[in-house]
Amino acid sequence: MEIQIDPHTLERAEERGTNEEEIKDVIRTGFSLPAKYERPGKAKIYEFKQNRLNRYFEQKRVEVFYTIEGDIIVTVTVYVFYGKWEEAA
Fold first, then answer.
1. The predicted structure's pLDDT at residue 86
2. Whole-number Å distance between alpha carbons of 21 and 53
């Protein structure tokens, strides 16, 4: 399936600390999330081991919400959370 990344998603990605490559990776290989507003979502946890906003974080969790229009996945938004998760689902 083709993945179309909405400009709004790319703006949020830059602000929140992710990029187009990770967004596509989350959609292709991430684990499913419960639907918000009847939109599917996927998430993936990445090793981060860096500072962000003057704090050190072991990992980041990228969540992507999207719609499916025919055979095209269209992103709606992306969220990024920083911390440490016990186990990647």
1. 78
2. 22
57 vs 37: CA distance, rounded Å = 30
Task: Indicate whether this model's pTM tops 0.70.
Answer: yes
Q: What is the mean pLDDT of each run of 10 residues along the chain (89 residues)?
A: 95 96 97 85 96 96 95 96 80
Kindly give, in sequence order, each residue whose CB lies less than 8 Å from that of residue 14, ignoring residues fewer than 6 positions away. Answer: none
Cβ count near 81 (within 10 Å): 15
Provide DSSP, 24-63: HHHHHHSEEEEEETTEEEEEEEEEEEEEETTEEEEEEEEE
Q: Looking at residue 74, what is its pLDDT? A: 97
Q: Residue 67 corresponds to which tokens in the numbers above?
A: 């719609």
